[in-house]
């Protein structure tokens, strides 16, 4: 045991400078048995601290990985859009549902998906005429404003006034509640120039591949 005590660090064959601790402005030696215990505790503490650090880092990495996966899943654009059979489609992304001499018109799921959240729909007047290939209104979204092109010619007999207060129906239900207008066809033969569901699906794939 190192029994000497002074303001200067004593040198002893059984004591090392690293084993002296400053206490009340004096260097006080520690009993070798207690010193060994403290050394052991220090080693265990270091290892335990390192273990906690590793566990914390692993936890953060796992959380970051899960967060990244979630963001990737929730923010990526859809790889496909819904296309309904028995409808006809224009290359400007409008759809037509023909029932005898009347037709219901709206924009496709592919169109609304690219537009984003729709905030306003410009509707034509009942009684006005629309012509194939000519615009009759517009759809405004948070991204842009796009003209709506009529896929057929005829007289407007009804418009979806629900869109005035709920334009988002175009996003939520483009083929049902989000329809835009109904017309009395003036030339039923124009429908034959439009695409069916399979042709339109292929058209969308090719168009998206170009971008």
Question: Strands of the biggest beta sheet: in what spatial order?
Answer: 3-4-5-11-10-7
Number of strands: 11
- Per CATH, which architecture of the largest domain? Beta Barrel
CATH top level of the largest domain? Mainly Beta
- Main beta sheet: strand number and arrangement? 6 strands, antiparallel
Class based on secondary structure composition and strand pairing? alpha+beta
Say which CATH homologous superfamily of the largest domain is assigned: RNA polymerase II/Efflux pump adaptor protein, barrel-sandwich hybrid domain
| Tally of contiguous helical segments | 5
Overall mean pLDDT score?
Answer: 77
Distance between the termini: 82 Å
| Tally of domains | 2
Low-confidence stretches: 1-31, 41-47, 63-79
Say what the CATH topology of the largest domain is.
Answer: OB fold (Dihydrolipoamide Acetyltransferase, E2P)
Our Rg estimate from Cα atoms comes to 38 Å
Helix content: 25-40%
Q: What is the molecular shape?
A: globular
Proportion in β-strands = 15-25%
Q: Output the helix-strand order.
A: EEHEEEHEEEEEHHEH
Give structural notes.
With 211 residues, this protein is an alpha+beta fold. The chain has 2 domains: 31-75; 88-209, RNA polymerase II/Efflux pump adaptor protein, barrel-sandwich hybrid domain (OB fold (Dihydrolipoamide Acetyltransferase, E2P), Beta Barrel), CATH 2.40.50.100. The chain contains 5 helices and 11 strands. The chain has helices spanning 32-75, 109-115, 162-165, 169-172, 197-209; strands at 21-23, 26-28, 88-89, 94-99, 102-107, 118-122, 129-130, 135-141, 145-149, 154-159, 181-185. A 6-stranded antiparallel sheet has the order 3-4-5-11-10-7. It has a 3-stranded antiparallel sheet with strand order 6-8-9. A two-stranded antiparallel sheet has the order 1-2. The longest helix has 44 residues, at 32-75. The termini are far apart. Residues 1-31, 41-47 and 63-79 have low confidence and may be disordered.
């Amino acid at each position: 045991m190192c029994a000497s005590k002074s303001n200067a660090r004593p040198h002893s064959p059984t004591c090392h400078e690293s084993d002296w601790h400053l206490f009340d402005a004096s260097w006080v030696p520690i009993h070798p048995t207690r010193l060994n215990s403290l050394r052991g505790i220090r080693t265990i503490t270091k290892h335990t601290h390192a273990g906690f650090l590793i566990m914390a880092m692993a936890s953060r990495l796992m959380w970051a990985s899960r967060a990244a996966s979630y963001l990737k899943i929730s923010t990526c654009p859809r790889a496909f859009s819904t296309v309904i059979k028995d409808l006809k489609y224009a290359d400007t992304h409008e759809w037509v549902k023909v029932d005898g001499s009347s037709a219901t018109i709206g924009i496709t799921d592919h169109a609304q998906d690219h537009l984003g959240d729709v905030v306003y729909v410009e509707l034509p007047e009942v009684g006005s005429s629309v012509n194939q290939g000519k615009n009759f209104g517009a759809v405004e979204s948070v991204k842009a404003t796009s003209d709506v092109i009529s896929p057929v010619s005829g007289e407007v007999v009804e418009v979806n006034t629900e869109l005035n207060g709920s334009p988002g129906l175009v996003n939520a239900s483009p083929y049902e509640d989000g329809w835009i207008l109904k017309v009395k066809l003036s030339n039923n033969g124009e429908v034959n120039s439009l695409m069916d569901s399979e042709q339109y699906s292929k058209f969308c794939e090719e168009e998206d591949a170009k971008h």
